[in-house]
């Protein structure tokens, strides 16, 4: 089992009998997920992606990497939003050198993300960058109709066609979209782009192990075979119907804290800045899966020790409506020891010869004890180190646990009706054809 859990940091907050009761509820939810007879059961295609992804699909992703390498492509613009963005962004951030941009490793293109906002400055600066570089693009949209990526793609496509010519553009643009429908599918057919399919039965936030995540991750120079292998090991481990299944334990404890103790907020904590976007990916996964029907635990995220110097005060001492889930990385990949200094003016010689990670681990333990003393229960999820394999396992762990958890909460984990509301208003305000009535109504509401 690559992902382990420790719920010991909640023991002083909950009764053992209640936890048993919630473990039972989580096991019942596990049964629903495994029998595939619960709400949203037409969106369970993610469950067996790790073990059933064909070699040919992995190879196709690698072929694009090799093809673009041969062309000397040094910039890949990955366009997508929400589930069509966050998994790849999370993996690239977690696996890249912290100073990759400054080091500019030859042979691997820089992967940048676009289409995840509507900022004009961002668009203009992306054009500045593309003008300096040898550019290709992966455009990802399951529906093929989402406004943010569509706007970004129009800009990037135009740049690529004007710079390299229309014929060459078709070999520099790859689309990841629905097998049959949507504007992006139509355009890809017309322009003869290479395409990858987002399976019908996999929702955006569960799609990181489809080409939505795999293609950008391999293009950024990472080993997607190892990632799938790690996820497949986790798929197997989590198929155990038992109280010691970490996904069952996680779902049980977070629902117990929420339902019986009024904990409204879960903070995903990492002591490693490489996991900043794991927090962003996890927030979408849990926020969109559980936040509906006026229910849900609000997902937040922090990076410690950085945020101990900002939000730490609130977590220690503010409103007692939260719990923490700490993602622990047991070993760092690199070693740096603290040196000794003859003058010792900074009085750090007591740490001389110690690894920086030792200080981090002590900060983590000290924080755990302090936050528990301050009234914040703590769950701990741990992996041995950060690499493709463990990241694949983490992705699968949180997805599987999310399915169980949302069923315990009593919501459909696989729909997202709430995200349509802003779109309707935006289309009405932008005067999109077909929205004439809504435009009139919204203008009247705004007194225009
Ligand atoms: O999880 C989801 O379903 C959403 O976040 C979508 O991924 C997001 O809205 C982007 O949708 P699409 O891929 O259709 O452009």
How would you characterize the overall build of this protein?
This protein starts with a strand and ends with a helix. It has helices spanning 16-35, 49-52, 55-70, 86-95, 100-103, 120-132, 147-164, 166-172, 183-191, 211-219, 224-237, 246-261, 276-290, 312-317, 356-373, 388-409, 420-429, 436-445, and strands at 4-9, 75-79, 110-114, 135-141, 173-177, 194-197, 265-270, 298-303, 322-329, 378-383. The strands form two sheets. The protein has a five-stranded mixed beta sheet, with helices on both faces. Strands 3-2-4-5-6 form a five-stranded parallel beta sheet, with helices on both faces. With 448 residues, it is an alpha/beta fold. The model has no long low-confidence stretch (mean pLDDT 96). It contains 18 helices and ten strands. Helix content is 49%, strand content 13%. β9, α15 and β10 (378-383) form a beta-alpha-beta unit. α3 (55-70) runs parallel beside α10, α6 (120-132) runs parallel beside α7 and α13 (276-290) packs parallel to α16 (388-409). Bound molecules: 5-phosphoarabinonic acid. Residues 81-84, 141-143, 146, 149, 203-205, 288, 416 line the site of 5-phosphoarabinonic acid.
